[in-house]
Write a structure and sequence with these properties.
The complex is a heterodimer. By secondary structure, chain A is an alpha+beta fold. Chain A folds into two domains: about 60 residues, no CATH class; about 100 residues, Roll (Archaeosine Trna-guanine Transglycosylase, Chain: A, domain 4), CATH 2.30.130.10. Chain A is built from four helices and eleven strands. A six-stranded mixed beta sheet of chain A has the order 7-11-10-9-6-8. In chain A, strand 4 and strand 5 form a beta hairpin. The radius of gyration of chain A is 17 Å and the shape is elongated. By secondary structure, chain B is of the alpha/beta class. Chain B has two domains: about 60 residues, Alpha-Beta Plaits (2-Layer Sandwich); about 210 residues, Vaccinia Virus protein VP39 (Rossmann fold), CATH 3.40.50.150. Helix content of chain B is about 25%, strand content about 25%. Chain B is built from eight helices and 15 strands. In chain B, strands 5, 6, 7, 8, 9, 10, 11, 14 and 15 form a nine-stranded mixed beta sheet that branches. In chain B, strands 2-3-1-4 form a four-stranded antiparallel beta sheet, sandwiched between helices. In chain B, strands 12-13 form a two-stranded antiparallel sheet. The radius of gyration of chain B is 19 Å and the shape is globular. Classes of the chains: A alpha+beta, B alpha/beta.
Chain lengths: ~170, ~290
């Protein structure tokens, strides 16, 4: 949550763990959690390589209080959902920490969270400059049906690789 | 015992004359995630033509030049693609709010999401299925539609009593033989052996569901099969053997059959609904509860 400068308090007694995955239950669900459950309640995310990767539901939850947000126009919103990075010209507003390497939630014009990315350049750039690299987006739901789930870690690496190339 | 002629002859004996059916795609608005009018307006702005279904509160037929399964609104879980007849079963429970609900054959999860929507994400749904691929589809669907009150198990519905819990509402959307309106190759693929195998499986699931039904609980039984062995005959069997009674429902469709191929069934079976394919696919729904003083 620090990544997005957000505030969210969870009741630990309602958090269930299944392998490396975390779920937030409601009170009534507690009695229905038995060994072997696949998923339950609100899927919060999973840990991989010691890092917590938030789910889309978790991103939606923290979007209410997060300060680091990038609002994009309709065309850019669709391109982002298709896995593309965000260029300066598609950004309508940025809030919170906008410096390089900060994580930012990507929001459409309706204020709905489409995923998140990492800031790779500031806003005072030319229209064709890439400002936010895509780390994860809701288009993942379609991609999951076609192939193995995208690895967050791989996409982070991909994003940081792009950043390195840009720096060169 | 198979082939188009064989099955059409059966349908004629049941009082229905075959006609070609072209199904229209339908969606259901997930009201937990969005206001109905907003979603409709957003889709209309994208050029999607929508027509409200007369018998479903959140159902719309859609006509679109692009896939409505690939819009931002769909990926945000604002609506689900769900055939109109398939939207009926979840609406038949008397009260869902705060209840303990079992969705015994849940994947790919369209009805589970609908139940969560009707429950406003309150109470508990236990969703079961057995095949790994279908369970993946189910969990993805729950996450996309931001369902928060469901526990998923990879468990055969015939073993649900292992969970050692009772349920107020049980949805049995049974694995079935399907129907020709939803599957162009249906007449080529299906035989009476399939129908009989499915009917047996359905009776086993129904019997197990009765064991985990609370005293005042309700079961909604549904199939998308047109074959009476999977529908009226199974309900007649349940009434005679499981101490259940049929509660009359008044949804879209017509009264279920009480005379099947010369066999007279319990008159209460007529309280179920049979939907012959027309604007929807073929479907069958029935609401059951424990017989009083059973």
């Amino acid at each position: 949550m620090r990544l997005f400068d957000a505030n969210l308090t969870l009741d630990n007694s309602l958090v269930a763990e299944n392998g490396n995955r975390y779920y937030l239950l409601n009170e009534g669900m507690k009695g229905f959690i038995k060994e072997g459950f696949l998923c339950a309640g609100t899927y919060l995310g999973e840990t991989r390589g010691g890092r917590f990767m938030p789910s889309f539901m978790f991103l939606t939850m923290i979007a209410q209080t997060a300060r680091n947000k990038t609002y994009v126009d309709e065309k850019t919103a669709w391109l982002f959902i298709c896995g593309r990075d965000i260029f300066r010209r598609g950004i309508t507003k940025m809030t919170g920490a906008t410096g390089r390497n900060n994580c930012t939630l990507v929001m459409n014009k309706f204020g709905e969270c489409l995923g998140f990315g990492r800031v790779v350049a500031d806003l005072n750039q030319k229209a064709e400059t890439m400002v936010v690299t895509n780390i994860v987006d809701i288009g993942d739901f379609l991609r999951r049906e076609r192939q193995k789930p995208w690895s967050y870690v791989a996409r982070e690496d991909h994003a940081s690789g792009l950043t390195k190339r840009l720096r060169k | 015992m198979s082939g188009k002629e064989f099955f059409l002859h059966r349908y004629e004996k049941l009082g229905w004359v075959y006609k070609e059916v072209k199904l229209e795609q339908a969606i259901r608005i997930n009201t937990i995630n969005a206001q109905q009018v907003c979603v409709i307006e957003r889709l209309r702005q994208r050029g999607v033509k929508l027509e409200k279904t007369t018998y479903l509160p959140q159902g719309y037929w859609v006509r679109s030049k692009f896939s409505v399964g690939a819009t931002a609104e769909y990926l945000l879980g604002l609506y689900s693609i769900q055939e109109t007849a398939a939207q009926i079963p979840a609406t038949l429970f008397s009260e869902l709010s705060g209840r303990k609900v079992l969705d015994a054959c849940a994947a790919p999860g369209g009805k589970t999401v609908q139940l969560a929507d009707l429950m406003m994400n309150d109470g508990v749904i236990v969703a079961l299925d057995v095949r790994k691929q279908r369970l993946t589809a189910l969990t993805n669907q729950l996450e996309r539609c931001r369902v928060r009150n469901t526990v998923v198990y990879g468990l055969d519905a015939r073993r649900v009593s292992q969970l050692d819990r009772k349920f107020d509402c049980i949805l049995l959307d049974m694995p079935c033989s399907g129907n020709f309106a939803a599957d162009k190759a249906w007449f080529r693929r299906r035989t009476m052996a399939d129908v009989e195998r499915n009917a047996k499986l359905q009776r086993e699931v129904l019997a197990e569901a009765t064991r985990v039904l609370s005293e005042e609980g309700e079961i909604v039984y549904s199939t998308c099969s047109l074959e009476p062995e999977e529908n009226e005959l199974n309900i007649d069997w349940a009434v005679r053997n499981l101490k259940l009674e049929v509660e009359k429902v008044a949804c879209y469709g017509q009264e279920a059959l009480t005379k099947v191929f010369g066999k007279r069934l319990d008159s209460f079976v007529s309280g179920a609904r049979r939907i012959w394919p027309e604007k929807t696919q073929g479907f069958f729904v029935c609401k059951l509860r424990r017989r009083e003083h059973a």
